[in-house]
Amino acid sequence: MARVVVEVMPKAEILDPQGQAIVGALPRLGFEGVSDVRQGKRFELDVDDSVDDAALERIAESLLCNTVIEEWKVVRVS
């Protein structure tokens, strides 16, 4: 059994209103010096050794992200 992480982030050219809301809130909470925040998603999958990288890529593209506005990457952690 292996642990796989799929990280999904908005593409650079896509507006990230959640990230902008966080940037706006930080100074009000007393945190200075943060100029940008991008909010994404993280998925952790426990997979059998039989699940190859190509299958993981298909899972990410077809189910975990919207490829029109998001980028993703698969990382095997164990």
Describe the structure.
The chain has helices spanning 17-28, 53-64, and strands spanning 2-10, 41-47, 70-76. The chain is α+β, with helices and mostly antiparallel strands and 78 residues long. It is elongated and about 50 Å long. The longest helix is centred in the N-terminal third of the chain and has 12 residues, at 17-28. The protein has a three-stranded antiparallel beta sheet with strand order 2-1-3, covered by helices on one side. The mean pLDDT is 96. Belongs to the PurS family. InterPro entries: PurS (IPR003850), PurS-like_sf (IPR036604). Its EC number is 6.3.5.3.
Query: What is the radius of gyration computed over CA atoms, rounded to a whole number of angstroms?
Result: 16 Å
List the strand order in the largest sheet: 2-1-3
Tally of strands: 3
Proportion in helices: 25-40%
Oligomer category: single chain
Intertermini distance: 8 Å
General shape: elongated
Mean pLDDT: 96
Structural class: alpha+beta
Which parts are unreliable, with pLDDT below 50 for 5 consecutive residues or more?
A: none
Report on the biggest sheet. Answer: 3 strands, antiparallel
What topology emerges from the helices and strands here?
Layout: E1 2-10, H1 17-28, E2 41-47, H2 53-64, E3 70-76
Antiparallel strand pairs: 1-2, 1-3
Task: Tag the structure with descriptive keywords.
78 residues, alpha+beta, three-stranded antiparallel beta sheet, 2 helices, 3 strands, 29% strand
